[in-house]
Amino acid sequence: MKPLATILLDHGSGGRASQELIRNLFLPHLDNPVLACMEDSALVDTGAGRLAFTTDSYVVDPIFFPGGDIGRLAVNGTINDLAMRGARPICLSLALILEEGLPMEDLQRIILSVQAACRGADVPVVTGDTKVVPRGKGDKIFINTSGIGLVDGDVQISAMNARPGDAVILSGSMGDHGITILTQRAGLSLQGDLTSDTMALHRLVRKMLDEAPGAVHTLRDPTRGGVATSLNEIAEAARVSVELEEGDIPVKPEVGAACEILGMDPLYLANEGKLLALVDKDHAGRVLDIMRSLPEGADAAIIGRVTAGPAGRVVLKTIAGGARIAPSLTGEPLPRIC
Amino acid sequence: MCLAVPMRVLAVKGNENDISTPRIGIVEAQGIEKEVRLDLVDRWPAIGDYLIIHAGFAIHTLDAEEAEINLRLLREMAAGVAGVTEGDKGSP
Amino acid sequence: MKYVSEFRDKKFIVPLVAELRRIIDRPLRIMEVCGTHTMAIFRHGLRAILPEELELISGPGCPVCVTSAAHIDAFIDIAARDGVRVAIFGDLFRVPGASGSLARAQSMGARVEIVYSPMDALTLAEKYPGEEVVFLSVGFETTIPLVAATILEAERRELDNFTVFSAHKIMPPALAALLDDPELRLDGLLCPGHVSTIIGAAAYAPLAENYGLSCVVAGFEPVDILQAVILLAKQAREKRSVVENGYARAVSWQGNPRARKLMSDVFAPVDCQWRGLGVIPASGMAIRERYGCFDAEKRFAIRLTEAPEPKGCLCGQILKGKKNPADCPLFAGRCTPLAPVGPCMVSSEGTCAAYYRYARV
Question: Among A63, A118, A312, C3, which is disulfide-ready with B6 (CB 3.0 to 4.6 Å)?
Fold first, then answer.
């Protein structure tokens, strides 16, 4: 495909446009074996053990939303990216890009929220940076966090490890964060009990790995692009197919209703406190029990299975009894009337 | 071409034939509430009625009787098919 | 969700599919006119369970898909002007004209707001009194009365910075034009549910009479679609061609006269260019003289210049149901949802986009 002339919002959507940008521009120029893995965190072998390293930037609008704010999101999101390789998160960096004119009160509120999230997760911020851009050159506040974690010697979690027969487990209801942010934006004015699910998942992962060693093959937090896009990435990396049961995928009734009203598909909405686990089928029941024993995984459910079908294909068996392909997200999901 | 969903009426503001004040309904589905315009609804809704909502406007007051007739026929059909299948099993 | 989930229930779907298989006694070509039907059929994976004898063809019922490149280019022209903020339905954002899309225009600095309702565009006009707020409006009979009500409300609020660019279209003239094509062989029409809420099932009587075509109004849940297809198959079997209403909870025979009156108070039929179908007489809806101060075409002195259809693109034939997306040399190669060439790939309910997303293996 010919390169696009300008950057569009779609390039940041986590869907196909983002993937093409990575594949056509970043990877060819920055290529190395670690980067090429394209996982949530990079694993770097230090000789004395494996280091997990990840970075993520947060540009959410609005910066305060039901269930959280940009500060909490920035802490939890990066902790989760470390956890998705099976790493124990050690510490974070916090870099702020502030727009001139941001109320000090807002910044204070965000920093208190960062503090609370770090304390709750027991992962400290150990370094940071602040820049201010002129008014109109940014949007209130952008945050970048990077994180470092350590991976135990026997832990092997990777998208490439998914294999036919594996059960696909989702740790709770999908779409909560995406629909909450969307309905907070001006113009939609839906009222209801919609709340972001932002949450750190490293303790849930720890318990799964400690109590069912070797059972978990792949972990991924389905953020931008949603469950469908994450599973497409896994299916591509592991050269397998995934079969989902629409009726088994947990969606809160209010999230489902908001999706119907706005013409959105919850399979493509962002989650900030959920994980997908691809688990050896013989241990799936046990892993599910372990997950459900913690609040982070209380609503966990087996939503499908890995099959030996064509590489990269995700099939949704619908509640109506039909079947269809569920490909990656194309661009930023938008409300529609058609 | 036109996405529209049924939502239940919680409250009605304004009068059917008075266009000088906004005619607005508060509607709900699964705990999601929305303010919608009633300017063009064909039958003025009562609280508890369902409205078909398209792009922030009620375009129709759902005919609950018709819906129930349809659902009853569907249930009968589903029960009938289950009965036939049972019967088939017994035949040689 | 009440009146939604019941009509997705597998315990009804399984016997309905069995019934359809029992009734269908020869190959049937049925056109689902409405893009929302196309989407529902894909979304619920219905093609996987329908009998092979049933061929579903997607018609011209996606308002974004049939909006001409000239209109899109005019939209972009307005959006790019100083002091203008445009409001659109999300569906329109990525649609390409000859000179890019509104998404691209936004990346170059145009102010583009995605709204859920035309009333939200009015709110924008009040919020930004120093700007011209233009609602770029596409849609069929379901949507046009809403826009009419919004224009009346703008008049009531005495807003002088709000205008509407009407690229609206109405269904019956387009269906008649389509059916006049001798190459189009059809056994039945799955009529658009929510358009029919406004125009009434009676609107299809001339089609059934003049073209001997079975017409069944259908809702958008799997049970609704199956029930309607069964009615069509029954008509084919009994060699009848009449109008039936398979969506009685939302559609009456006469439709919604209040909405139709609002529509005709504010809008008047004009000849209109449909992407892929050409100019169809009296198929568009222009703002009446009486409301001329809310007409963006007048305020911005817009003249539509028709651009040629993209080379190699089969959207015109696909919209007529004559070709399948897979027949198009551009499909899934040069033309994808990320870089759409033709209109059918652009809208998420467009036939090509639906095929690309859900059916491609």
Answer: C3
